[in-house]
UniProtKB/TrEMBL annotation:
The chain crosses the membrane at residues 665-687. This is Ig-like domain-containing protein. Residues 692-737 are annotated as: Disordered. Residues 27-151, 155-255, 262-356, 361-453, 458-546 form the Ig-like domain.
Length: 824
């Protein structure tokens, strides 16, 4: 604490307190006597100064001692020739007479026998302040005079303490003032004669005696204390007013209230390692702040808000509890606690700790710094780097390729050294996705996948079209599909010959060869080589050009779900040869009871959905393939939906389950033998007749020829390809194809429901089947039989190359054959 400097001269000190002092003066005093009306100049024996405090006793001395006897004592107030007190001793001691004036009656008494004799005046006041003359008369000696100057002291009033313009009550707190700041107080007093002095005391020690006078006769003293310290808290400051040692000093006091800075700060719980992602608690304790300190937290410079504070009753100790979730990025960052008193400038205290955060490894996989990852070719060396962050350090590092863990194998060119993976002389097999994996005590870390692309020369793509159908004189487009990185930039085409090296027929940037064969010699094998920036293709892609034709029928057609509870869901087949051209597939479904077509759809694959077909009906499904050159032979499947099978007659179901009895088998076999013999005879006869009737119209003959129509049944004449026989019957039965009980299965790969497909007249053998006949107006049958009790005769025209016999289209009966069937 420092005090403001003031002038060495202090009015308060110049006033001082008022001791009784003897003052010398003129010994001669002029007295005016009204009684004699003369002005006497008398000799004053002595002059006395007396001071008395207001409301106290004033004793005024009078010199009466002499050898002569005292007779009369008169007391006068200066300026008046009327005595204020008379003491008459002329009648003797016993008859002493005391006669005070009205102004002092009851409070004045002359004491002649006291040494020295005095006039005592009680309860003096300011009005009593004056100069008094004591006149003493003797019997023989001349009259003697004594002068007494009486000064009355007025005690000072109670001092008033001001804090700025605010009057402070006695004994209360003043402030609060900030620690380190300045205190300015003012003390004033309004009354007191003479003017009182004002002095400041701190805990009983004088700290300021300088005072001033205001124009309104007020005395004041301003106190300034600079740089208040913590020890000044509750310090007692007193302002004392005094003007004489005869009066009691007046005192006013206050106590200093302060805002205190935090004195000390500590951090607890920040030295142990934290675990990433787990809730952690840290405490910050602050001492000495008044009032309680405000506490703030930061981590890596970012503010944290999840904390709470509690203080003791005095506010001297504040504890802040921080709850936070450290992250990996917080490792080795500073956790800082700040405390400050917002009422005190520059009061902030700080404590910080660099924290350690434990976490599983964080891993990145990178190509080697000197490696051009975008231009790695077969035979290059490649290395990867595993960039890891972990606390504590990583214990184990592993590598994986396409999800499979890798191990070091120098013979295969795989070298693992810590965080580095080296691949020597890479091949296409090294291409793929690589990962780095690291482990420490807190868990595993996995890098993202890094793709290694190995550039390589072109190779033939395994999944592509190898055979193309071509028509002489027409354009065929051959696509050369290869795998390469980067993509091919040039192609070279050649025609393969058996007698000489391949004949180069085209070069360029296009992957498609546009080729027009002009003779059968220009059909065969076409070779393609592709080339990219890595190199040229070693083995060419070989494509076969063959003469285009209609596709083969679909194979292995079936209902995969058989007789499920919901009926046939779909039908599917295996595609046959496409005839060298792109093929599609056609499915037609007929209701066997009505002959109505209930489904018609085409598809690029031989699979059709039948879920929308109604239940309880027998169906005939006809499938075929077609391309630009025509349509294949039809394949027929018969099926019933589940509800129909559930309600089938018991005997019909039993017949289906038991199969054909041996008796029926022998009858059929004998019948077929008879049919073959009779048919052969009829054929020879018919051939001879047709030669004689060539000039007749074959069309009319064909219209007149028909079928033997028997109510409910008819004969369907079906042709089977040579060499296949009836093997398909066994295959269909093994596949579990659903059949109606009254339908005898036959070869479904060459049948055309509503037509007959043949290659020529000599490669087919006749076959008779008994089937349920759909109405003739619904099925486009071109077989007509004349009514006969047991025989039917029909003509089957040989199929022209690549064509299909249409109903009513019989052009060449000379190469036909007669088939005679017997109806059982």
């Amino acid at each position: 604490m420092a005090f403001s400097e003031k002038s060495e001269f202090s009015p308060c000190l110049s006033m001082g307190r008022h001791p009784l002092v003897q003052l010398s003066g003129l010994p001669w005093v002029a007295l005016e006597s009204r009684e004699i009306n003369l002005l006497h100049v008398v000799l004053v024996a002595s002059v006395h100064e007396r001071v008395a405090a207001e409301k106290n006793i004033a004793s005024l001395p009078c010199d009466v001692y002499d050898t002569d006897q005292l007779t009369l004592v008169l007391w006068f107030r200066h300026g008046s020739n009327v005595p204020i007190y008379i003491y008459d001793a002329r009648a003797g001691v016993m008859s002493e007479s005391h006669r005070p004036s009205e102004s002092i009656r009851g409070r004045a008494r002359f004491l002649p026998h006291q040494k020295p004799p005095v006039l005592q005046i009680q309860e003096v006041s300011v009005r009593d302040e004056a100069s008094y003359i004591c006149r003493v008369d003797f019997q023989r000696q001349p009259t003697r005079y004594t002068k007494v100057n009486l000064t009355i002291i007025e005690p000072p009033g109670r001092p008033i303490i001001w804090d700025g313009n605010k009057k402070v009550s006695d004994g209360t707190l003043v402030g609060p003032f900030p620690e380190g700041g300045d205190l300015r107080l003012k003390c004033t007093v309004d009354t007191g004669r003479p003017r009182p002095t004002l002095v400041w005391y701190r805990n009983g020690v004088t700290i300021d005696t300088y005072c001033e006078k205001s124009p309104d006769y007020r005395v004041f003293n301003e106190l300034t204390l600079s740089s208040l310290e913590r020890k000044d808290l509750n310090t007692r400051l007193e302002c004392i007013a005094s003007n004489s040692n005869l009066t009691v000093d007046e005192i006013s006091s206050v106590r200093i209230d302060l805002y205190l800075k935090p004195a000390n700060i500590s951090l607890e719980g920040a030295d142990q390692p934290f675990k990433s992602g787990m809730n952690s608690t840290v405490r910050c304790r602050v001492f000495g702040s008044r009032p309680a300190a405000s506490v703030y937290w930061t981590l890596a410079g970012k503010s944290l808000s999840n904390h709470s504070e509690q203080s003791d009753a005095s506010g001297n100790i504040t504890e802040s509890i921080l709850s936070f979730w450290p992250e990996v990025s917080d490792d080795q960052e500073f956790l800082t606690c700040y405390a400050e008193n917002p009422h005190v400038e520059s009061s902030r205290l700080t404590v910080a700790r660099k924290i350690s955060v434990h976490y599983p490894p964080e891993v990145r996989i990178l190509f080697g710094k000197t490696l051009n990852a975008s231009n790695i070719k077969v035979g290059d060396d490649v290395y990867f780097e595993c960039d890891m962050k972990a606390n504590p350090d990583t214990l184990k590092i592993t590598w994986s390729h396409n999800g499979e863990t890798m191990t070091g194998d120098r013979e295969r060119g795989i070298i693992v050294t810590g965080g580095t993976l080296i691949l020597q002389s890479v091949t296409r097999g090294h291409a793929g996705f690589y990962q780095c994996h690291a482990q420490n005590v807190h868990g595993h870390g996995h890098s993202s996948e890094l793709e290694l692309s190995v550039k390589y020369p072109p190779e033939c793509h395994p999944d592509q079209r190898w055979t193309y159908g071509a028509t002489l004189g027409e354009v065929v487009y051959v696509l050369c599909q290869v795998k390469a990185d980067p993509p091919p930039t040039r192609y070279r085409w050649a025609f393969n010959t058996s007698t000489s090296p391949p004949l180069v027929i085209a070069k360029g940037k296009e992957e498609t060869l546009t080729y027009i064969p002009k003779s059968h010699l220009e059909l065969g094998s076409v070779l393609c080589w592709a080339e990219n920036s890595v190199g040229s293709q070693g083995s060419p892609c070989t494509y076969t050009l063959q003469e285009a034709g209609p596709p083969d029928p679909p194979r292995d057609c079936r209902f995969p779900n058989g007789s499920s509870s919901s009926g046939p869901q779909f039908v599917e087949c295996e595609p046959g040869l496409d005839g060298g051209l792109s093929q599609s597939f056609l499915l037609q479904v007929f209701d066997l009871d009505t002959g109505n077509q209930v489904y018609n759809a085409s598809s690029p694959v031989p699979r059709f959905d039948l879920t929308e077909l109604p239940e309880g009906i027998s169906y005939s499904a006809i499938l075929s393939a077609f391309n630009q050159k025509g349509r294949s032979e039809d394949v027929r499947l018969d099926a019933r939906t589940a509800k129909l099978l559930e309600h089938a007659p018991p005997e019909e179901s039993e017949k289906k389950e038991e199969g054909w009895p041996m008796t029926q088998f022998l009858v059929v076999l004998a019948s077929l033998a008879g049919i073959f013999i009779v048919g052969s005879i009829c054929a020879v006869v018919r051939v001879r007749r047709t030669r004689k009737a060539r000039t007749k119209s074959t069309a009319k003959t064909n219209d007149e020829e028909g079928s033997v129509e028997k109510p409910g049944e008819s004969l369907h004449l079906l042709s089977l390809p040579q060499g296949r026989g009836t093997e398909n019957e066994d295959e269909d039965e093994e596949e579990g194809v659903l059949r109606a009980p009254d339908i005898i299965t036959h070869d479904r790969t060459r049948e055309n429901f509503g037509g007959v497909m043949t290659s020529n007249a000599t490669e087919y053998a006749p076959m008779i089947q008994r089937v349920r006949s759909p109405p003739m107006n619904k099925v486009n049958s071109h077989h007509r039989f004349h009514d006969s009790p047991g025989l039917g005769v029909g003509w089957v025209r040989s199929q022209p190359p690549g064509g299909v016999v249409r109903p009513g289209e019989v052009k060449d009966l000379s190469v036909g054959m007669v088939i005679v069937g017997m109806v059982f």
